[in-house]
Write a structure and sequence with these properties.
By secondary structure, the protein is of the alpha/beta class. It has ten helices and 20 strands. The chain starts with a strand and ends with a strand.
Amino acid sequence: MELTLLGTGAPDGLPRPDCPCAVCASARGTRARAATALLVDDALLLDLTPGAVFAAARSGRSVAGVRQVLLTHPHDGPAMELPASLPPAGRVPDGQELTLISGHRVRAVAMDAPGTGYEVTSPTGERLLYLPPGGAPAGLPDRVAEPYDMVVLDVIGRPDAVARLRAADAVTAATEVIAVHLDHDAPPAQELDRRLAAGGARAVPDGTTLPVGEYDAVPARPRRTLVTGGARSGKSLEAERRLETFPEVVYVATGGRRDGDAEWADRIGLHRERRPAAWRTEETCELVELLESDGPPLLIDCLSLWLTDAMDRVDAWDDALWADGGRDRLRIRVADLVRAVRGTRRTVVAVTNEVGSGVVPATPGGRRFRDELGRLNAAFAAECEHVLLVVAGQALVLRG
């Protein structure tokens, strides 16, 4: 089965008409995207957008053989243009199946938002799932009998849809995940590619034809990622985005609780509100045990608080005790952590602070902490496939 993406953008396209935002201003040439429409084996058209005939011609395809046009958007969806050569556009009721003269079987999938999803099975058995913008499947079983070969959906707007499909084994490591319905809320160019790759997905230009069932294009997700940055730089949000398509994540809070500290409680509350409900939180600094065990991905926030705890345990704040074995005991703890990161089988995203570019601390203990955190960050980063520096909410790739 071959899939041609006549468009990959949001219903209004990208750039949006008359929108002055930075993303729309830069969406030119190959970065411009028409409203999403899919042509399957030149026989089935999923979503009908203005200019579909010309988009197919530019892609080296033809809609002359299309025998069925199906819509995913709600009834008040984007404008349609029905060429005289195409059959009327329609919709399959949720749960019902349609068999085309070409041999393709199409089943309508119920959504948790307005619109209809479609599961397409080719005559030779390849399986494609296409979802409308802003939607995720409703009523998925705990486990599906067979995973999809390709899933095409709104990854940026609904990353939890990918997580739901993964939880039900509908999306596996062999499933190609294609991001569509891309709007000006999506990051531009390389930032988009990087964010999608973290979730095992990718975007392609309008007009791309993809064979459904070939798995060599599935992006490889890095196992270990370190995200560093200054205060309020957006590093924690960046780390969370890298794991938002996973069905289960263990959020490791190394800061613990601080009874009576209202400001700290507010910070923790904001972090919890951002995280998906399915994520589990563990308040601990015993990172080595977690890294050496099997389980779902870990999000460690953060290494600087872990180091604070480690320095507390070895009396590193006292100059005399630091010189009398404290330094050596801390180095052992750091070495154990780095060794566990190197050998872990789990997906890990860790957050840390970049403190070496700021004001020089006034106290010996503060300077000691700054220096030891710099050493820890360097050692941890050396074991990671991907290292990011976040500045003013923008992620700069240092490695990977």
